[in-house]
């Protein structure tokens, strides 16, 4: 089908806008002024009435299925006290009396404004119920709390050890219900296993939400060692049955050689990937935890907790071995690294895998939050793609100087520095750690402020980005990670007709209002897949 779009402000590239475009069979064949298309042949016409159009956004790192799980479970993001968490849990059980196990996600002790400002523990969750297991995951996903029933089911005690993880003990020297890093996987086992239909519902619920926000592509980590093949199959079936048009690229997580070997011998060579709507994607590793939980791995002690340097869940040797195997099989790797210690490990590991100094597989760093000036220079020189989440500033502005000191904080979250140095920079949200709302994400990149507008002038204002550059990071920058920068991410001839029509001109509004932008229409492959009512 031929579709003609006219009377728009169509973003082509920085400083260049066109009025109209012609789309044929999902591909843009021409852009230009309205008058350029007076004699064009088309079957469908969309008059934008002057609205602004940008390329469809591409979240370079999130967890789509978990977004759906969060949307369909006990929501804790807005809780502002331990008492409120308890109330949310009780209300959920009252509304769902047949619940066999209660799962929730999103609590953050740093947002508590009344009562104690601490991590929730099993005693708190026991006030909700001691009859069924309860697992409430912290917003970062690197810490979770279980109630006494969950601990009983697991059979853990003060002697239980988990490689790469921590089971915290309370004042009584028994587990207090708080599980960190790799230990959180134990708590997952007390929640009843999802059916294939449950997984599909989670996936599609989140996909619909993403499309409504102007996302046309996502790069998503939904696969871990546990139940990996089943989830691969569910996602492949979703796309073989065309149940969503959202373009999807895997970021599958295997933290050991055996898991990666199984993938190489099975899924890597399976059918069902067209690399346009469903892509094999990248191996996703993680080295450390989160800044908020002080589990991000640092080169020096935390400024606000001497003697603590966070958690390294992989040794340098383990990291090198996994990267070597992945590189041998031409598998791209993207790795969670938040602390400067984790970033240092990763730069060193990637450099060993580079062919003649070239990062030919585009191995990338996810998060890359705490960095020194020297590390930024190395990342840029080695052309290591960085998958940033500007929205993290909304929370981290409050804590980063306390955690790492003013000097190191000043060279962290360095979106603009790396972008101006020519580093491939892309944007994502790590949702459900944060909402997948791209407009709040772009707002943080441009203003360097929290969503409430503080601090005045922005945190490290030299790192504020131009809105066009920020959109490019979210579109062609993200496409670069997938080796698809010549296929999507631009509204030019030869590119996929993936786009978002906005309710206001994002290039002209005050930066403070970027977070309020909404999408009037989303198009994927030339097909209108969302219209705001």
Could you explain the architecture of this structure?
29% of the residues lie in helices and 22% in strands. It has three domains: 2-56 and 495-531, Urease, subunit C, domain 1 (Roll); 101-188, Diaminopimelate Epimerase, Chain A, domain 1 (Roll), CATH 3.10.310; 195-481, Metal-dependent hydrolases (TIM Barrel, Alpha-Beta Barrel). Helix 2 (82-95) links the parallel strand 9 (74-75) and strand 10 (102-107). With 533 residues, the protein is an alpha/beta fold. It is built from 18 helices and 24 strands. It has an eight-stranded parallel beta sheet. The protein has a six-stranded mixed beta sheet with strand order 3-2-7-22-23-24. Helix 1 crosses helix 6, helix 6 packs across helix 7 and helix 9 runs parallel beside helix 10 (340-353).
